[in-house]
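Working notes for the structural subgroup meeting. M.R. asked for a predicted model of this chain before we commit to crystallization trials. I am recording the input and output together here so anyone reviewing the notebook later can reproduce the run.

Input as submitted:
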Amino acid sequence: MLNIHNIEKSNFVNGNGNRFVIWVQGCDLGCKGCWNRESWSFEAKILKSADEIFKEILNQPNLDGVTFTGGEPFLQDSELTKIAKRVKSETKLTIQVFTGFRLEEIENSPLLKEIDTLVAGRYGQEQRVYNFSDTVWEFDNESVEVEICEDGTLIVTGYPQDEFLKDLKI
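Returned structure, recorded in token form:
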């Protein structure tokens, strides 16, 4: 089972095109400047199987790819690898992953073999983009997407600056 912080079924700032984005729950890297600290706790939030999530991906029309972010995806890489393998073998979607780990820290992960684009390195300090396929993504640390949920909560994705977040939380 995956411990999920949030799933956004249509997102345009976390990779090329229309993405199905999975934010996993749990991270112990403590990157300075991380704006998604709510995803650091390892306490169970939303538990779903790889099969459940893959079915959700298949039911979402007009996707260009799937993005794993967090929290820290490589702390749940065995379950994410199950999803990624099915995505790669059963669809034409791309896989992109955002991780706080450096490439050399995750080089033995089976998930790495399934990734088209990897953004790796401690947040805000040393992030690098690795394109492992013909899919090329230019890192954009300025785009922001805001979703207003039915209950009035806001979901902010992308790379919001501190001033933007302060102004948003009026």
